[in-house]
Structure formats: structure tokens, C-alpha cells
Specification:
- The complex is a heterotrimer.
- By secondary structure, chain A is mostly helical.
- Chain A has 16 helices and no strands.
- In chain A, helix 7 runs parallel beside helix 10 and helix 9 runs parallel beside helix 11.
- The radius of gyration of chain A is 22 Å and the shape is globular.
- Chain B has 2 domains: 43 residues; 109 residues, Ctag/Cox11 (Ctag/Cox11 (Pfam 04442), Sandwich), CATH 2.60.370.10.
- In chain B, the strands form 2 sheets. Chain B has a 5-stranded mixed β-sheet with strand order 3-1-9-5-7. A 4-stranded antiparallel β-sheet of chain B has the order 2-4-8-6, with no helix packed on it.
- Chain B is flat and about 75 Å long.
- By secondary structure, chain C is of the alpha+beta class.
- The interface between A and C is large, with 88 and 94 residues.
- Chain C: Belongs to the cytochrome c oxidase subunit 2 family.
Chain lengths: 516, 192, 385
């Protein structure tokens, strides 16, 4: 058969192999996860007790902004693209991605984008300090000079995501092995297909909104400036037209991952496969008509407020279907709790909590009290950390033996899980309380009645951070270990990837496999 | 079924996906802002009032009904002008044309241009508030030390929903000196 | 005449802190007790309704959670491989899928009905008794009583020493202002909310009012407070550096007290206007200047003018206070361009106060410039710069 990887650094720079590129994406996102995590710890350290101790408010705002941007665009999205690169071809029996050279490109522009973004920290006037939602006019007329670099970085990462998405769609639609019909595809492939369409629909809108900012800042237009006939609220509409689907971009592939893991450890097929597909599609559709629920306090006419409230509440229905399906998949199975399963079960529980607080936020009159408080922070971290981060972690533990052919240390994995689980809940659960009690988000200092819960949250955050260091250690140890993994790795797992040898050969499915 | 046998379909697919991407970008930059403006006009979002109103025929005056109209003046951050309504509140009958004015003075030693941006609450009433004459239709150049009376003529539509009895109109004046050079030349030459 | 002026100055500077003092004792009882782990019930019909909605949806969520997690935990305990559980093989049931689509849908409808009626009520701003224009600034609020000629800024009054951990924090740390918004109880008060620079959001949890303040546009909201008291909130939209340091304090008082307060404020506004137009003697300026200095400057520059260098430089012998008077005025009116700790006082103090405090600084702490300013000088300076 064909040759193996090229030797040296050239292998990584010029590779067009989907497994190599998947690995690059995963390591890159791991690095970004730690950088974004350090920013989060700066925030939590400052909020450990009332008063200003460690950073000035100006720098604090840079930290919240960079934490959000790095985690969303640098950690979660590239990690999912990395998993897609690794797994989609071998899940559908394809030899590689459909557009391997573009694949190389879409990865290698990312480090440039994030170097530019991170370099703003050292610029005169500091890094972007207007929050990851960068509302105008704070991000236009009142922005630090580094905003131009920020816009450039967003353009590059947007281009990367769009190229990645095109590649994934082309691969899924054109490269499936004979007999691999759409409704036979693993759910991870399905959710990624839908995610990729979302990406193509909304990443250009993000590019559009930053382009309009750029024009307002440098070329005298006034899209977002009332003085010239524009409107700062228009920014929010365009941003959230991107932003809400973006939220689902960060969660739909996670649905796919746990839908692969739970059946394996329940030793029972996934319950309601087709309803899962339809639920994912309807969530994706609904994501386009709910954006203004991020703007309930902005002053929307009554009819609009009601429409967005009802549409948002509707999302609970397909999301509920998914949760019920996972629970029913576990029901009457033969359960065991290896690390991937622990993370997946925690995903279902904690994501449901995040979903329920989302339902509360959908009630527009109540949202007048919740909006822009720590209740919202608690909500979206409950959705994103157990949602995106836990599912990615679960996926890594689940497929790592397939990737490198070695078995990870189960005990260390379980320790990682329990530390992360405790850290996460300690960090984010008290945020519900302080939010309801009246603590606004994005403040560097707070009044005394919030002190105790914030101290707990800060301790939890450091515990969570320590857990991730253990994760890194475990991954490196696995790669270096000599404990061979079997080809199947788990007990009768479903999917083409398990028919390959462990580690998966550099070139796989050069001849399409037989589908039962 | 594999890709190599159908490279054409891949090219087609990728081209259509790319086109979608470009289309969505264009949608965001060129379509969303105008759509948003239309949307604002219909719903009164942000209290944006309509442009110049020209009645095809004289509206009947509804003598039985009285509506309170309040006037507010605001300066945006860098605007040093004195700017205030001459009357802060009047009661009008729907259908009757009413003339009010704002006072503006440029107390600085530089010539400046201001632009007043109207905003009306409640939003539901914006479609029923017609301006037949308004200083907000143009930018306002004021020479150093100059003062001016800025005129607004309006008609409250008799169709104004029953439950609305108070309208509040705010003007925020922005300093657009320098950013509106072309307009400035036109209006100063016209004024002198 | 002189005695008159002195008297009015005194009432102005003594009355204001005295009022604040009486409010703050009241506050200690209310604020800390009531803010716990849940949304405050609040003191208006709307806030109680919102709290009710919040609790209803919360209990629905708890119910759903109990059912879902109940089944899950039962499964995780009962159907473990280690306990010898054998896996079944069912994987589809259209009836179940339909059932768990319809039940959540029904719950949503049950929730949507009261939410809709509350929302309609919240949007009805008609027939207000008092109209107040609220303007967000970086980083303070301005309140204007529409048609009443009363307007003032409301700044954070927590001293820097508490923020930077040099002094013990008081119970209302970061939730206290120099001049609270005063509203009458049992009246419909309408808020017209806008901003001067970037987007802010005006929020008081006990009133359940949160509305974005958008530059160039106006938003409206309303409240009907039923209990006199002090209600505290904060800016709820990231608005730059000091977003966390622009609290909202609302004092609700019975109508009679409110009218009395408003009358005093109107008289004070008229007085201040009159003061601006008259000439002050050097001694008057020094006396007023000392009061203004002690309320506004002494926290940083210290009562003896020695400051706490390098952040808070000394005024005694400083280049600014012993240099050209125009430069001194520029510093006080516009703040320092190099040192953000020195804020712009141009809009926060009246012309009379500015003239007095500048005169005082130039002629105290060993500074002996001998020159002075009149309010009209400051007014002219402000207008030309």
C-alpha cells in the first residue's frame, strides 16, 4: 500500500493527510484552551474577593474579551474541526477529506489569526476590551487601536472555518463508501453536516459585521453610528444573527459525540436515531429565528418581543427530545463507566441543567431580571463547558486509543473527570445565585453580599484548571506508553472506525469497505 | 460513488457552497442594514420617525381628542452646543398641524455642524407622528457664537391608537463637524 | 446679602450629606438582608409578577429535572454491567417520541400565557405621573425631571481607598452614590432612558426595571413603587473601563416628602443659577472652596493637600496649582490626560463650586498665588473649550 508520513517538520507543514491535520487541529485547540484558561484564571483570581487586587479594570475587560474569543474561536471550534478531520473520513469509509490541500490551508492560517489576536495584548492601548460580543459603539468609536488587528484576525479565522465547513460537506456528500446511505451515517457525521451548513450560513455574516465595523472606523461610513443615520442596535441584530447559530455550532457536534459514546457503554443501540437527526435539523433551523432573545432589554416592539420569546421556548422541544433519547438509550442497558462514559453522562446531566436555565431565560419578562447578570454567565458556561468541553474530552478519551494505538491510564482519566466535574460545579453553580441576587456580568469588582459565592467560584476554577493539566499529562503519557490498545478498544463498539487497526493506519479505506 | 469517479459533482458542490458563503456576506453587509431600516419604519423600532410627510389632502382635525406631546433635547458626548426645546410640552388635537421650535447655540469659537437625530416613544406611535417640516432633515451649521431657532412642524395622525395619549420626542444633537464636509458646503452657501 | 449667600451655600452643602446619611442607615437594614440566593421579590406590582413567573418556571424546571435525572440515576444504579445487567435491544418507539414532544410543548404553553400578559403590562407606559430622563455616561448616570428644571449627576461615592483595599469596605460598597434618584411612592414613574456615549443599561432589581441606554435613541420603562426605601442596582451593559463602578441608587419616598425634596431641589437649582451670575469675594470663594475640596478632592489629594504620590500628586507646591490659572482650570474641568485617576469635574460641579475650589487650591497648603476665579470666568472657559 501507499507510503507513510514524510519525515521531519515538513510532514506537518505540508501534510494533506486528514489524520495529520486532525491532530494539528486538536493540539492547536488544546494550546488555545490553556491560554484561554489562563485568562479565565486571571479573571477568577481578581474576583476572588471584593476590591481590586491583581489587575486594573481596563486589563480585566481585556481578559474577559480575550477569554471569550479564544475559547469560542480558538479552543472549541478547532477542536470540533479536528475531531471531524480525524473521524469523518474513517466513519464513512472515505480515504481522506474531499479537498486535502484546502484542508492544509484552513488549518495553517489559524495560527496566524491567533498570533495576531494575542499580539494585541502587547499593543499600545491594549487588547480588545469590549467583550467577545463587541457591541458598537464601544467597539468602534470607543475602541482601542488594536481593534483593526482584531478585525483582521476574525476575518482569517472566519475564512478558516468556512473552508473547513466546505470540506466537510463535500466529504460527507461525495465520499461515502458504497452502501453508506445518509440514514446509516453515524450521528457525529450527521450533526457535523448540519453544523457545517450553519457555519457557511453565518460565518460570512460575522465577516460582514466586522467589515462594517472596519468601514465605520476607517472609512467614514456610519452603519452603527446614529449621527450619520446608522444605528448601534443594528450591530446587535447582525451580530446575533451570526451569534445564535454560532452557539449551536459549538454544541451540535457534541451531540454527535455523546450519541456515539453512550450506546457503546450502554451496550445497546442509540434510541431514536432518526428522531435525533430531525431534532438536530430543527434546532439548526430554529437557531436562525431566535437571535433577538439576546436583546430583550434593548427596546424591541411588543410583537417582536413576543415572537422571539415563543420561538426561543420552542427550542426546548427538540432539545428535550435529544435528552430523552439519551436517557432511554441508557435505560435497561448494561452500563459501565469508563472515562468517556463518565464525561458523557456528566454532559447529559449538566447540559440539561444549562438547557433548563436557558428555558428560564427565554421568558422575556423574567429575562429583564436575568439579562447580563451572572445568571446568564452560569447558563452559558453550563451549556458550553459540559456541552462542548466535556464532549470533546469524552471524544478524546474514546478515540485516543484508536489514534495512537495505546491505552490511556483509566485511573488518571477518572481522577481527571472527578476533579473537572467538581471544579466545574463549584465554579459555575454559585454563579446562578449571585446572578439572581443582582450581580452584573463583566465587572472587575463587586459589592460585599456576593463575596462568599465568588470565593467558592474562584476556588472551583483553579481546581478545574488543575484537572486539565492532569488531562494533558495523561494524553502525553498515553502517547509515550507501551500499553497497546486492541483494534476494537471497547466492547463491541459500533462504527467503521473500529474495523481499522489501532493505531489507525496512515492511509485507511483506500478501497471502500463493505457496508453490511 | 467515491469522489474520484465524480470530480465534477465535487467542483459543483464546492462552487455552490462558496457562492452561499459570498452570498451570506453580501446579505449581511448590503441587505441586512436596509431591511433593518424598513423593519424599523414598520415597527417603530428605536423610535425612528419617518421622513418628510406630505399629506395628499388636509387631515380632518379630531377636536374631541387631546394628545400630550413632550419634547426632550440631548447632546451627544462631544457636542458643546446649548440645545433645548422652547416648549417642553404641548397638548394637540390629532390632525392639526402644530409648529414648535428648539433653541440651539454654538458657544464655541469655531464653526460647527450638528445633526439632530429624532427618537420617539412609544415605538408603536412612530407611524402616526408626521413631520411636515423638521430641522432634523438637514444638518445644522452654526458659526462661532451663532444661535438659531430650529423649527419643527408636525401632525399627529387621527388614526393614533386609542390607548396612546402621550408622545415623547427626543432629539439628540451630534457633532458632525468635519465628517460631513460636502453637506456643510452646500448648506452654508445656501444660508449665506 | 452676604449672609444670605453664605446661608444658602451652607444649606446646600450640609443638607445633601445629611440626607444621604439618613438614607444610608435605612439601607443597612434592607439591602444586605434581602439579597440572598434568589431574585428579589421587589417592591412593585411588576417586580412581584416577574418574581412569580421566575418561581413558576423554576419549579417546572425542577420538576422536569427530577423526572429526567430520576430515571437516569435509577438506570445508572440498577442497570450496571457490574451488577450483571443484560442489555435490551429496543431502539425505537414513535409513540414515546410523540409523547415527549407533546408534553414539553404543553408545559411551554402553560408558561407562555402568563409571560405574555406580564409583558403586555410592562410595555404599557401610558398615564405616567412623573417623567424622568435617565442618561448613561461613561461612567455615571444623569437624572433629569422632565419639565421640573431639576437635573443632576449621580456618581459612585465609594472612596478609592476602599476599592484598593486600604480601608475597610462599608456595607454598601460599590452600591452607593453621591446623589440618588428620588421618586415618589404610589405614583407611576416613567423612565426615558438614553446614553451619551456608549450603550449602558439601567437596572434596579427591586424595581424589576432593566433597559438599555442607547446613544441617539430613547427607550422607555416605568415603575410603581409601593414601599418607601432605598433600592440599589448597577449598570448592566459593558460600557468600558468603569462599567463595574456606576451604580444606581433609587430612593422612594412618600409623595409629601418627595414634593418637599423636589421643591428644595428646584430652589437650590435657582439659587445656584443666581450664584453663577454674581461676583464672590475672595473670602467667600475660600470658604466655599474648602467645603468643595473636602467633599470632592480630599479623598485622594488629602485634606492637607499633600496627596499620595505618585497616583495622587500633592497640590501643595504643585506645578498646576502654582502655574498659569488656565492650566489649572483645564486640569479640574477636563481631568488629566495622563492620569485617569484625575477625573473631569467640569460637569459634576457647578461653575461657582469650580471657581471656589480652584481659588482655594491656589491659596492654601502653603500655595500663595493671590489670584482668584469668578463663576462667570469658569462658564466662559467651559464654553470656549
Amino acid at each position: 500500500m501507499a507510503h507513510g508520513p514524510a519525515p521531519g517538520i515538513g510532514r506537518w507543514l505540508f501534510t494533506t493527510n486528514h489524520k495529520d491535520i486532525g491532530t494539528l487541529y486538536l493540539w492547536f485547540s488544546f494550546l488555545m484552551f490553556f491560554i484561554g484558561g489562563i485568562f479565565a484564571l486571571v479573571i477568577r483570581a481578581e474576583l476572588f474577593e471584593p476590591g481590586l487586587q491583581i489587575v486594573e479594570p481596563e486589563f480585566f475587560n481585556q481578559m474577559t474579551t480575550m477569554h471569550g474569543l479564544i475559547m469560542v474561536f480558538g479552543a472549541v471550534m478547532p477542536a470540533f474541526v479536528g475531531l471531524a478531520n480525524w473521524m469523518i473520513p474513517i466513519m464513512i469509509g472515505a480515504p481522506d477529506m474531499a479537498l486535502p490541500r484546502m484542508n492544509n490551508w484552513s488549518f495553517w492560517i489559524l495560527p496566524f489569526a491567533f498570533s495576531i489576536l494575542l499580539s494585541t495584548l502587547f499593543m499600545e492601548g491594549g487588547a480588545p476590551n469590549f467583550g467577545w460580543t463587541f457591541y458598537a459603539p464601544l467597539s468602534t468609536t470607543y475602541a482601542p487601536p488594536s481593534v483593526t488587528y482584531f478585525i483582521f484576525a476574525v476575518h482569517i479565522m472566519g475564512a478558516s472555518s468556512i473552508m473547513g465547513a466546505i470540506n466537510i460537506i463535500a466529504t460527507i456528500l461525495n465520499m461515502r463508501a458504497p452502501g453508506m446511505t445518509m440514514m446509516k451515517m453515524p450521528l457525529f457525521v450527521w450533526t457535523w453536516l448540519i453544523t457545517a451548513y450553519l457555519l457557511i450560513a453565518v460565518m460570512p455574516v460575522l465577516a460582514g459585521v466586522v467589515t462594517m465595523m472596519l468601514m465605520d472606523i476607517h472609512f467614514g461610513t456610519s452603519f452603527f453610528d446614529a449621527a450619520g443615520g446608522g444605528d448601534p442596535v443594528l450591530f446587535q441584530h447582525v451580530f446575533w444573527f451570526f451569534g445564535h447559530p454560532e452557539v449551536y455550532i459549538m454544541i451540535l457536534p457534541a451531540f454527535g459525540i455523546v450519541s456515539a459514546i453512550i450506546p457503546t457503554f450502554a451496550r445497546k443501540p442509540l434510541f431514536g436515531y432518526s428522531s435525533m437527526v430531525y431534532a438536530t435539523a430543527s434546532i439548526a433551523f430554529l437557531s436562525f429565528i431566535v437571535w433577538a432573545h439576546h436583546m430583550f432589554t434593548v427596546g424591541i416592539p411588543l410583537a417582536g418581543e413576543l415572537f422571539f420569546m415563543y420561538a426561543t421556548m420552542l427550542i426546548a422541544v427538540p432539545t428535550g427530545v435529544k435528552v430523552f433519547n439519551w436517557v432511554t438509550t441508557m435505560f435497561k442497558g448494561s452500563l459501565s463507566f469508563e472515562t468517556p462514559m463518565l464525561f458523557s453522562v456528566a454532559f447529559v446531566i449538566l447540559f440539561t441543567i444549562g438547557g433548563l436555565s436557558g428555558l428560564m431565560l427565554a421568558i422575556a419578562p423574567a429575562d429583564f431580571q436575568y439579562h447580563d447578570t451572572y445568571f446568564v454567565v452560569a447558563h452559558f458556561h453550563y451549556v458550553l463547558v459540559p456541552g462542548a468541553i466535556f464532549s470533546i474530552t469524552a471524544g478524546v478519551y474514546y478515540w485516543l486509543p484508536k489514534w495512537c494505538g495505546k491505552m490511556y491510564n483509566e485511573r488518571m482519566g477518572k481522577t481527571h473527570f472527578w476533579m473537572a466535574f467538581a471544579g466545574l460545579n463549584l465554579t459555575f453553580f454559585p454563579m446562578h445565585f449571585v446572578g439572581l441576587a443582582g450581580m452584573p456580568r463583566r465587572i472587575p469588582d463587586y459589592s460585599l453580599q456576593f463575596a462568599d459565592f465568588n470565593m467558592i467560584a474562584s476556588c472551583g476554577a483553579f481546581l478545574f484548571g488543575a484537572a486539565q493539566v492532569l488531562f494533558l499529562f495523561n494524553v502525553i503519557r498515553t502517547i509515550k506508553s507501551s500499553k497497546k490498545a486492541t483494534d476494537e478498544v471497547w466492547e463491541n463498539p459500533e462504527g467503521l472506525e473500529w474495523t481499522l487497526a489501532s493505531p489507525a493506519p496512515y492511509h485507511s479505506f483506500s478501497t471502500p469497505p463493505e457496508i453490511r | 460513488m467515491s469522489a474520484n469517479s465524480q470530480p465534477k459533482s465535487i467542483v459543483k458542490l464546492v462552487a455552490s457552497l462558496l457562492a452561499t458563503g459570498v452570498g451570506m456576506f453580501a446579505f449581511a453587509v448590503f441587505v441586512m442594514p436596509p431591511i433593518y431600516d424598513v423593519f424599523c419604519d414598520i415597527t417603530g423600532l428605536n423610535g425612528k420617525t419617518e421622513g418628510r410627510y406630505s399629506a395628499t389632502e388636509a387631515t380632518p382635525v379630531d377636536e374631541k381628542r387631546t394628545v400630550k406631546v413632550q419634547f426632550i433635547a440631548k447632546n451627544n458626548e462631544t457636542m458643546p452646543w446649548q440645545f433645548q426645546p422652547v416648549t417642553s410640552e404641548i397638548r394637540v388635537h390629532p390632525g392639526e398641524p402644530t409648529l414648535v421650535s428648539y433653541y440651539a447655540k454654538n458657544p464655541t469659537q469655531a464653526d460647527m455642524v450638528g445633526q439632530a437625530i429624532p427618537s420617539l416613544v412609544p415605538f408603536a406611535a412612530t407611524r402616526y407622528f408626521h413631520k411636515t417640516e423638521c430641522f432634523c432633515f438637514n444638518s445644522q451649521p452654526l458659526a462661532a457664537g451663532e444661535e438659531a431657532e430650529l423649527v419643527l412642524q408636525f401632525i399627529v395622525d387621527p388614526e393614533l391608537p386609542e390607548h396612546i395619549n402621550t408622545l415623547t420626542l427626543a432629539y439628540t444633537v451630534f457633532d458632525i463637524t468635519g465628517t460631513a464636509e460636502p453637506r456643510l458646503e452646500v448648506s452654508t452657501s445656501a444660508g449665506q | 446679602m452676604l449672609a444670605n449667600v453664605k446661608q444658602s451655600i451652607k444649606t446646600f452643602f450640609i443638607a445633601a450629606p445629611a440626607c444621604l446619611l439618613s438614607y444610608s442607615t435605612l439601607a443597612q437594614e434592607t439591602v444586605t438582608d434581602r439579597w440572598g440566593v434568589n431574585m428579589p421579590v421587589g417592591v412593585t406590582p411588576v417586580s412581584r409578577e416577574i418574581h412569580g413567573l421566575h418561581m413558576d418556571i423554576f419549579w417546572w424546571c425542577v420538576g422536569i429535572g427530577v423526572v429526567v435525572f430520576g430515571v437516569m440515576f435509577y438506570t445508572m444504579i440498577a442497570h450496571r454491567k457490574s451488577r450483571g445487567a443484560k442489555a435490551s435491544n429496543f431502539h425505537e418507539s414513535t409513540a414515546l417520541e410523540i409523547l415527549w414532544t407533546i408534553i414539553p410543548f404543553a408545559i411551554l404553553i402553560v408558561m407562555a400565557v402568563p409571560a405574555t400578559s406580564s409583558l403586555i403590562k410592562i410595555y404599557d407606559t401610558e398615564e405616567a405621573d412623573v417623567d424622568i430622563v435617565i442618561t448613561g455616561y461613561q461612567w455615571k448616570w444623569k437624572y433629569e425631571y422632565l419639565g421640573k428644571d431639576v437635573s443632576f449627576f449621580s456618581n459612585l461615592s465609594t472612596p478609592n481607598a476602599e476599592i484598593y483595599n486600604q480601608a475597610e469596605k462599608n456595607p454598601n460598597y460599590l452600591l452607593e452614590v453621591d446623589e440618588p434618584l428620588v421618586i415618589p411612592t404610589h405614583k407611576k414613574v416613567r423612565f426615558l432612558i438614553t446614553a451619551n456615549d456608549v450603550i449602558h443599561a439601567w437596572w434596579v432589581p427591586d424595581l424589576a426595571v432593566k433597559k438599555d441606554a442607547i446613544p441617539g435613541f430613547i427607550n422607555e420603562s416605568w415603575t410603581y413603587v409601593e414601599e418607601p426605601g432605598i433600592y440599589r442596582g448597577q449598570c448592566a451593559e459593558l460600557c468600558g473601563k468603569d462599567h463595574g463602578f456606576m451604580p444606581v441608587v433609587v430612593v422612594a419616598m412618600a409623595e409629601n416628602d418627595y414634593n418637599q425634596w423636589l421643591g428644595e431641589r428646584q430652589a437650590m437649582a435657582a439659587k445656584m443659577k443666581e450664584l453663577t451670575e454674581k461676583n464672590f469675594s475672595f473670602d467667600e470663594l475660600m470658604e466655599l472652596g474648602q467645603t468643595v475640596y473636602n467633599t470632592n478632592c480630599a479623598a485622594c489629594h488629602q485634606p492637607n493637600g499633600q496627596g499620595v504620590p505618585p497616583t495622587f500628586p500633592a497640590i501643595a507646591g504643585s506645578a498646576v496649582a502654582t502655574g498659569a490659572i488656565a492650566g489649572h482650570m483645564d486640569m479640574v474641568v477636563h481631568g488629566s490626560k495622563k492620569n485617569p485617576a484625575m477625573q473631569a469635574f467640569g460637569e459634576q460641579l457647578s461653575e461657582a463650586q469650580l471657581a471656589a475650589v480652584i481659588t482655594y487650591q491656589r491659596n492654601s497648603f502653603g500655595n500663595n498665588m493671590g489670584d482668584s476665579l469668578q463663576p462667570i470666568d469658569v462658564l466662559k472657559y467651559k464654553e470656549s473649550n
